[in-house]
Amino acid sequence: MQRSHYYTYKVGSEEHSVAKVSYPSEKDALLNATKFNAYGKDIHKLVAYKCSKCGMWHIGHNHTEMTDDLREKAKQRYKELCDESKKVR
Ligand SMILES: [Zn+2]
After folding, report:
1. How far apart are CA 26 and CA 84, in angstroms?
2. What pTM value is reported for the model?
3. How far is the CA of 2 from the centre of ligand 1 (A)?
4. Which of 17, 40, 42, 86 would suit a FRET pair with 30, their CA atoms being 20 to 30 Å apart?
5. What is the mean pLDDT of residues 46-66?
């Protein structure tokens, strides 16, 4: 499980790291994580977490594999989150 401020990737044998996208609140991070879980192509689930380095929120993979069932749940959850944020605005 990656709980880092950085996202690392390999190009050939070279390892690069870039700062992850930061979200100002858990809600923002969760909304994006849920959107990726519902409509993304990743086989692993994305979760939101608070970064100890910058104090902002990032999203990262956990080791849960996305099943059709989980994707359906994520779609429903995403709708709920969207409706909630509409109510606030
Ligand atoms: Zn960070």
Report:
1. 14
2. 0.84
3. 12
4. 17
5. 95
